[in-house]
Amino acid sequence: MIVIDAVTKRYPDGTTAVDRLTLEIPDRSITVLVGPSGCGKTTTLRMINRMVDPSGGRILLDGHDIRERPVNALRRSMGYVIQHAGLFPHRTVIENIATVPRLLGWDRSRARARGLELMERVGLDTALAKRYPYQLSGGQQQRVGVARALAADPPVLLMDEPFSAVDPIVRKGLQDELLRIQADLGKTVVFVTHDIDEAIKLGDMVAVLREGGRLAQYAPPAELLSA
Ligand code: ADP
Ligand code: ADP
């Protein structure tokens, strides 16, 4: 379980991005952070993998303050997916997906087999393995991004508006795929979106943030009060 305990983030320019946020994020389920642009969703996600340090409060992973662990070990336990996939442009699909396994010392053939397995898991035709990112549609790039994040089998997936830049039909396919993957693999997913419909569809728990980085509601979708 990830526990966000009274966490505040104030940036050096004085902006309060997150204000005394407390959330218990259960294991093996999807927790969605939703709210308007600027309400602190990305900042919260980045604090979980220590790309941003809180100004106050603490974050616990399985009962331990995340600052106790070496930052590299922490990040290896968390796959990260962003809006425009952030793929390495000069690497093929299979090389993108196998990046982390290769860094972990897997040999080429094992990393490649893992890459192909993951392409199938995220619904990508393995015939695309040798393409470069620019040769893929937006939706295909996002699938590669998800496969890459899953490559080293991290227990946690952090996803920052991963499907917001693709058209509605492709987005629906990606959402369905994520639900299937999460159910199969039992990942703990923290998913950021500004789209309340997406939050309701995907979330086991939904945290509604509002302006100033304050928590407005935290509940399963069926119990959310309409604002
Ligand atoms: P969201 O993901 O909900 O759009 P962010 O976490 O990106 O929100 O931003 C929350 C607030 O913090 C916004 O007011 C944003 O402008 C501000 N902010 C984000 N990053 C920085 C930064 N590096 N320096 C200063 N202010 C920032
Ligand atoms: P979308 O409308 O979803 O963005 P695209 O028009 O970018 O899709 O691509 C449609 C199909 O054409 C996809 O299957 C994609 O893999 C393929 N494709 C796009 N660009 C190239 C390219 N430069 N070389 C080979 N195939 C491509």
UniProtKB/TrEMBL annotation:
The keyword ATP-binding applies. Its EC number is 7.6.2.9. It comes from the Bacteria. Residues 2-227 form the ABC transporter domain. One of its GO terms (molecular function) is ATP binding. The keyword Secreted does not apply. Keywords: ATP-binding, Nucleotide-binding, Transport. Belongs to the ABC transporter superfamily. This is ABC-type quaternary amine transporter. The chain holds residues 1 to 227 of 377 of the full protein.
